[in-house]
Design brief:
By secondary structure, the protein is an alpha/beta fold. Helices cover 32% and strands 18% of the residues. It has 2 domains: 188 residues, P-loop containing nucleotide triphosphate hydrolases (Rossmann fold, 3-Layer(aba) Sandwich); 212 residues, 2-Layer Sandwich (Nucleotidyltransferase, domain 5), CATH 3.30.420.280. The chain is built from 15 helices and 13 strands. It is elongated.
């Protein structure tokens, strides 16, 4: 309807805002969906109007452009596109409007946003059910709203006849039963939530992400790490992949809840190469900036990197990677994400979790919803091993939390009056 209203200038509540004729894009995931979804719905609205069609595939009834004659020599043009064409196909002159159906890639969205004309506005519209993880889009739609954005959530249940809708309740119930459990509430409510195969399904930005204001109020009073708090680190060396270092702290006044308050993440494919000494120098500089040492740092098994890092002033202990440690460390993090209803308050209405993550840890927050199990095959149970992708900050997080849980902490060692071999403190001179 929005595309039709824009193209004809007949928008019912934006009279005068939209001048026809104009030109706009109407896009979805694939050309097949253009023919199956976009075109059939639009064609019904165009019945009786003088239209000319340029076909993408006439035999399959898939148009590429529809021109609508408004009067005399005045024509509006609707140009169909598919995300599968890639970012380059969204390079063109200025559009009056762009309408996206279903979730869209970030590079396509950015390219489309450059279509803003010098003397005319660009209206962007999108309708989607968020069943795939897209942290960048979730953050924009669920974080601080922009003045330019209007976000509407349309719950499926509002369509029930029992609620004044037009679909029988039993049909909606049957549809919900067909969906995988992970995506039922997402599709039902239109909200960002869990995804098929997602490992950390209880993770929610509303619950687990801490912005600077909340950090100063609840975690770091007076802008400083609490004096009695223990600070830890986790390393994923990366090798041919990104290098990741996470800082975590147990907050004494929050029952020793874990707070991941900073990250150092270096993707050499995007930012160029770096030597281990440069990584170490950045980590020590960050420690100095926070004014605290890491009392223990847990790292993946790589004695060469660990010994070199120790020489640069960043000692570490080997992370617990015994039998079944991958599964156990995942379950450790999952358990910490779970809200605890008995700790409900105004800041955590659904219950306070054991694990919190600072908003500045953008790569950690990006990876959490992307970390997933593969689909099952004849030879592989889906939950045997996660997909080895988008997991570098996650690995550092697992090493830190799981190893810390299984080992003696510096505070315990001091209380028991004995020394932990290899328990060296990270110092900066």
């Amino acid at each position: 309807m929005e595309v039709f209203w824009f193209a004809t200038g007949w928008h019912p509540w934006r009279l005068g805002d939209i001048r026809a004729p104009n030109e706009g894009w109407y896009a979805t995931t694939t050309w097949d969906k253009v023919g199956d979804t976009l075109w059939p719905n639009l064609r019904r609205l165009l019945q009786g109007m003088d239209c000319r069609i340029v076909w993408h595939n006439k035999g399959r009834d898939i148009p590429e452009r529809v021109s609508i004659k408004l009067n005399a020599a005045r024509w509006s043009h609707i140009i169909f596109k598919a995300y599968e064409q890639g970012r380059e196909s969204f390079q063109a002159t200025a559009m009056r409007y762009i309408a996206f159906d279903e979730q869209f890639p970030r590079d396509v969205f950015i390219e489309a946003m450059t279509r803003i004309g010098a003397d005319a506005p660009l209206d962007f519209m999108a309708a989607l059910t968020p069943i795939e993880s897209q942290p960048w889009l979730e953050a924009r739609l669920t974080g601080e709203p922009r003045e330019s954005d209007a976000v509407f959530e349309c719950p499926l249940d509002d369509n029930r006849i029992s609620r004044g809708g037009f679909i029988a309740d039993e049909k909606i119930d049957a549809l919900i039963e067909e969906w995988p459990p992970e995506v039922r509430e997402t599709r039902r409510l239109g909200k960002w939530g869990s995804y098929v195969g997602s490992i950390f399904q209880t993770f929610s930005r509303d619950i687990h992400v801490v912005d600077e204001a909340k950090e100063a109020r609840l975690f770091f009073p007076n802008g400083r790490i609490p004096a009695r708090a223990e600070v830890f680190g986790g390393i994923d060396w990366g090798g041919a992949n990104p290098f990741a270092f996470l800082w975590g702290v147990k907050i004494p006044h929050l029952d020793n809840d874990w707070y991941i308050f900073d990250e150092y993440y270096w993707n050499f494919l995007e930012r160029g190469g770096r030597r281990l000494q440069q990584h170490a120098d950045e980590i020590k500089a960050r420690c100095k900036r926070w004014g605290r040492e890491c009392q223990q740092v847990w790292a993946d098994h790589d004695p060469t990197d660990a010994n070199e890092f120790m020489g640069y002033g960043v000692p570490s202990l080997p992370a617990d990677k015994g039998d079944d440690s991958l599964r156990m460390s995942i379950e450790c993090v999952q358990g910490m994400f779970n809200p605890r209803p008995h700790l409900s308050n105004a800041d955590w209405p659904g219950g306070r979790p054991k694990l919190h993550i600072a908003a500045r840890c953008v790569n950690t927050l990006r990876e959490i919803p992307l970390y997933r199990y593969p689909d099952s095959t004849a030879n592989l149970n889906a939950k045997e091993k996660p997909i080895d992708k988008d997991n570098h900050a996650i690995s550092a997080l697992r090493y830190m939390l799981y190893s810390s849980r299984n080992r003696i902490t510096p505070a315990q060692a001091a209380a028991w009056d004995f020394e932990i071999p290899g328990n060296q403190r990270l110092r900066f001179d």
